UniProtKB/TrEMBL annotation:
Residues 1-75 are annotated as: Disordered. The lineage of its organism: Eukaryota, Sar, Alveolata, Colpodellida, Vitrellaceae. Residues 66-75 have a biased composition (Low complexity). This is Uncharacterized protein. One of its GO terms (molecular function) is transcription coactivator activity. It comes from the Eukaryota. Residues 213-240 form a coiled coil. Residues 35-54 have a biased composition (Polar residues). GO terms for biological process: positive regulation of transcription by RNA polymerase II. It comes from Vitrella brassicaformis. Residues 10-24 have a biased composition (Pro residues). One of its GO terms (cellular component) is mediator complex. Keywords: Coiled coil.
Length: 343
């Protein structure tokens, strides 16, 4: 900063003219205050001592500027005093007015510096408040993030537990399905064995019936009428047996088709779990009921056939007894005739 230059001396005013403060000489101006920058560099949130250091540096710079201004003013006053000694006593008032103007300028500079300092301090206070608020927001965000992380960890733990329980349930369902399939296969094999046994029994009965019928046809020549009635009954029984056999074969075919359909349905619906098991159990119950009905029909047919065979055998036995009695009577008559002829 340069001290203001003194202009040429002016004549002293008269006795009745009041003294006016002299402004700067023509072509000269007092140095203005250095421009203050209201835009401060951003302060990092982690530095809490930087605003105080900046304030101290600003105070040191301000004091240094004041010392330079005072030194420049003193050198200017000295130069003015030397000039006054050469000019005369009339230039003393101009020097006083210049000093007053310079002092006024120093006062304005001081007030401007104080205003700039106050504004800087207020801005620093605002920045400090903003940093504090940001720190509070950061703390709140950390707390909220911690709570969210804890909640997510608890939810993940619950999901893992639920997943484990789901896997255990799936394993139990698979075991139940395997056991149900085994039971169904065992029951199916048992039913097939029973059906095969019933078919073999039916064939044996049919064969026995055929043999008996042939024997009856060869032995019952004299009792044709009775045999005709018996033959009609046997034909009716045979027709009934054939109808029953056809019904059994048809039911077995339906059962086989249903079993194939059930097998396809089981293969298709393995993932349905308890619903498929319940449906299979219901179908097994229905099949069991149908097989029970077939067994009852078969036993009824067997009972009817046995009764018919027993009745036929009894009739044959009666006819044989009658035949024997007739032959015995004929023999007796022949013997008596031979005796009478001999006599």
């Amino acid at each position: 900063m340069q001290a203001p230059q003194l202009g040429p001396s002016r004549p002293a005013p008269g006795p009745g003219v009041p003294l006016q403060p002299a402004g700067p000489p023509a072509g000269h101006s007092y140095p203005s205050a250095p421009p203050t920058s209201h835009t401060q560099a951003p302060i990092p949130p982690s530095s809490h001592t930087q605003p105080t250091q900046m304030h101290q540096q600003h105070q040191h710079q301000h004091q240094h500027q004041q010392h330079q201004q005072q030194a420049a003013a003193a050198s200017g006053v000295v130069g003015v005093g030397g000039g006054v000694g050469g000019v005369g006593g009339g230039g003393g008032q101009d020097v006083d007015m210049t000093v007053q103007s310079f002092a006024q300028w120093l006062t304005e500079m001081k007030s401007s510096s104080s205003a700039s300092l106050s504004q800087l301090l207020s801005e620093m206070s605002i920045i400090r408040d903003g940093i504090t608020a940001n720190n509070q927001d950061l703390t709140e965000f950390k707390r909220h993030s911690t709570s969210i992380q804890t909640q997510m960890q608890s939810q993940l733990t619950d999901l893992r537990e639920k997943l484990g329980s789901a896997f255990s349930e799936i394993s139990s369902l698979v075991k139940t399905k395997a056991s149900s399939d085994g039971e169904f296969e065992s029951e199916l094999s048992t039913l097939q064995q029973q059906a095969h046994y019933k078919a073999s029994e039916l064939k044996a009965l049919d064969k026995a019936y055929t043999n008996t019928h042939q024997q009856l046809q060869s032995n019952l020549v004299q009792t044709q009428n009775t045999i005709n009635v018996t033959t009609n009954e046997i034909a009716a029984i045979k027709k009934q047996s054939q109808t029953l056999q056809d019904g059994i074969f048809q039911k077995l075919g339906d059962l086989d088709g249903r079993l194939h359909e059930l097998s396809g349905r089981i293969e298709k619906e393995k993932l349905d779990g308890n619903k498929n098991v319940a449906a299979v159990q219901e179908e097994i119950a229905v099949l069991h009921e149908k097989l029970t009905g077939l067994s009852a029909d078969f036993f009824d047919h067997k009972r009817i056939t046995t009764a018919a065979l027993n009745r036929l055998q009894s009739q044959v036995w009666v006819l044989e007894e009658q035949k024997k009695k007739g032959q015995a009577a004929q023999q007796q008559q022949q013997q008596q005739g031979s005796k009478t002829s001999l006599l």
